[in-house]
Amino acid sequence: MSLVVRNLSIEIEGRRVVDDVSFDVPDGARVGLIGESGSGKSLTALAILGLLPDAATATGSIRWNERELIGLPDRELARLRGDEIGIVFQEPRTALNPIRTVGRQIAESVRIHEGLGRRDAAARAIAEAERVHLPDPAQIVRRYPHQLSGGQRQRVAIAMALACRPRLLIADEPTTALDVTIQAEVLELLAGLVARDGMSLVFITHDLAVLSQIATHAVVLEHGRVVEHGPLSRLLTAPASPVTQGLLRDATATLWRPGGGA
Questions:
Q1: What residues does each domain of the chain span?
Q2: 114, 218, 228, 255: which has the highest count of C-beta atoms within 10 A?
Q3: What is the pLDDT of residue 260?
Q4: What are phi and psi of 172, to 5 degrees?
Q5: CATH 1.10.8.60 corresponds to the domain 1-84+168-262
Q6: Contact status, residue 262 vs residue 216, Cβ threshold 8 Å
């Protein structure tokens, strides 16, 4: 399965915030969308899943496995979300429901998409918690989000996104809110799961050092437009655009390993 984005434009109340963006994510590829705040990278990701704000309109084409997603009824998009396409958001504290146990939240997608009963879904939640290396999975699934650390909450969010073994994972700045040590652990976990399941990845970040740990190709955005794209190894060693050159200068020193992940 592959994702093909062509001439995607997004307008919010008459203002164009994403302008003529095109890129491909072949089956099994790991592609980064990178740019500063306001570059349009997160809006591009939300457009893929039909999660744009009500005031936003998208034109162009987003094809998943040759199926056009723009204009697809929400009911049909809902069948794709969490099943064929998973998403991990930047801040799990807001993405998780504070009044539900994390186990119930992990189990929800398998109950919806795979039709599992309550008991089987609960057992599956424990297995998924173990898969993302949460400590004492049988106990941690009984806890609420506020009882977990930031890194543990993000692992729960990853477990939720991957429970149904999607073919594409969209990760929207999933490590930004974490300290450097936990950030590295989560990146390593994500990279391992993506490789193990053979899924495609769209990883969104403003940090080229972070992207170097997990992606092989990158699409650089500025003010809603693509300014450069190609293998990450080339962007790290011979960036052509001033935007990429600036991102390279600003790369987080503590995570920087030249050529890492490329």
A1: 1-84+168-262, 93-165
A2: 218
A3: 43
A4: -100, 95
A5: no
A6: yes
Q: Quick check: 257 pLDDT over 60?
A: no
Amino acid at site 237? T
What is the value of pTM for the model shown? 0.89
Residue 117 falls in which region: left (phi positive, over 0), alpha (psi -120 to 50) or beta: beta
Give me the half-sphere count of Cα atoms (radius 13 Å) on the Cβ side of residue 51.
Answer: 17
Q: Which of 153, 209, 203, 144 is nearest to 180 (CA)?
A: 209
- What pLDDT does residue 1 have? 66
Structure tokens at 212: 């170097």
Q: What is the mean pLDDT of residues 161-179?
A: 90
- Residue 70: pLDDT above 70? yes
- Per-residue pLDDT averaged across 117-121, rounded? 92
Spatial distance between the Cα atoms of 104 and 144, rounded to a whole number of angstroms: 10
